[in-house]
Every structure is written in C-alpha cells, then in structure tokens.
C-alpha cells in the first residue's frame, strides 16, 4: 500500500543551527524557514534527490511538537511520511488491521490529506500517511 518516502521530519531546538548542519556540513539544498501557524511549526525544507527532510521547530503556545522537544532537548526524528494513493482506503485498512489512527484525516503541511498512526503499532515510529 505505501509508496514513496515523502519526507522524514526531524525536530530541532535551533532551526538556524539545524539548517547549517544540512546546508554546510552535509551540502544539501535548504529552504529558508517557513512559518506554518495552523500546524504550530516553523519548517525548513531540505531537498534531496529522492525525498525531503523537514526540520521542525515549535511555533506558538500550542505547538504539537513542544512536548517532543521537552523530552528530547537535543532534537530527534519525529516522524516518517509515506505516500498513499487513497487516504480514506488507507485509514480503513489501518483500522481493520487494528492499528491506531490518531485523530481524523486532515490537511497537512503540503495542503494534502494526511493521517497519523500510533508509534506503538509501527515499530516505535510515528508514521504519517499522505495522499500523493
Ligand atoms: Co510530516
């Protein structure tokens, strides 16, 4: 069912420092920071030939990643995002498999429908599915 790896999201305590690591040390193409207030994050997009890395930093009081950064002050991998053709069918398949779907299908940071899956059902990793 899952297709391409769309992105890996990494929470960082310092976006400028994280950008410098990917741009200067690793030699990747790195965007300027983009505020996504409706998602409670500021994001830097790192473009790789076959996928993207998203550096995330909390934005605002109710950021969904604030607690992650409290628990992981040095930052860390937050989720992986796989593409699916049909998000409704994917949600149904996950529920039938007994996997926990977190909340409802919503519009994600790329203006496409996404859903999140519980890390305890997916090898300890928060999984995002995005309708490509
Ligand atoms: Co994501």
Shape descriptor: globular
- The helix/strand order is EHEEEEHEHEEE
Tell me about the biggest sheet?
Answer: 9 strands, mixed
**Overall tally of domains:** 1
What would CATH call the architecture? Roll
The rounded distance between the terminal residues' Cα atoms is 12 Å
CA-atom Rg in angstroms: 15 Å
Number of strands: 9
Summed over residues and divided by their number, the pLDDT gives a mean of 96
Alpha-beta content class: alpha+beta
Structure, explained:
The protein starts with a strand and ends with a strand. The protein is globular, with a radius of gyration of 15 Å. A hairpin with a 4-residue loop joins β4 (41-47) and β5 (52-58). It has helices spanning 15-25, 66-71, 87-96; strands spanning 5-11, 29-30, 34-36, 41-47, 52-58, 76-84, 101-107, 113-117, 127-131. With 132 residues, it is an alpha+beta fold. Strands 1, 2, 3, 4, 5, 6, 7, 8 and 9 form a 9-stranded mixed beta sheet that branches. It has one domain (5-131): 2,3-Dihydroxybiphenyl 1,2-Dioxygenase, domain 1 (Roll).
Question: Tags for this entry?
Answer:
132 residues; alpha+beta; 2,3-Dihydroxybiphenyl 1,2-Dioxygenase, domain 1; 9-stranded mixed β-sheet; 9 strands; 39% strand; binds cobalt (II) ion
In short:
The protein has 132 residues and is of the alpha+beta class.
Topology overview:
Elements: E1 5-11, H1 15-25, E2 29-30, E3 34-36, E4 41-47, E5 52-58, H2 66-71, E6 76-84, H3 87-96, E7 101-107, E8 113-117, E9 127-131
Parallel strand pairs: 1-5, 6-9
Antiparallel strand pairs: 1-6, 2-4, 3-4, 4-5, 7-8, 8-9
Bound molecules: cobalt (II) ion.
The site of cobalt (II) ion has 6 residues, from strand 1 and strand 6.
């Amino acid at each position: 069912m899952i297709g391409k790896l769309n992105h890996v999201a990494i929470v960082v305590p310092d976006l400028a420092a994280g950008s410098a690591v990917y741009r200067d040390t690793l030699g990747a193409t790195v965007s300027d920071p983009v505020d996504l207030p409706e998602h409670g994050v500021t994001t830097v997009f790192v473009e790789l030939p076959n996928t993207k890395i998203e550096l995330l930093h909390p934005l605002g009081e109710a950021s969904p990643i604030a607690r992650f950064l409290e628990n992981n002050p040095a930052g860390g991998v937050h989720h992986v995002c796989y593409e699916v053709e049909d998000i409704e069918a994917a949600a149904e398949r996950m529920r039938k498999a007994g996997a926990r779907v977190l909340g409802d299908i919503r519009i994600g940071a790329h203006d496409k429908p996404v859903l999140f899956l519980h890390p305890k059902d997916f090898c300890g990793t928060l999984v995002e599915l995005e309708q490509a």
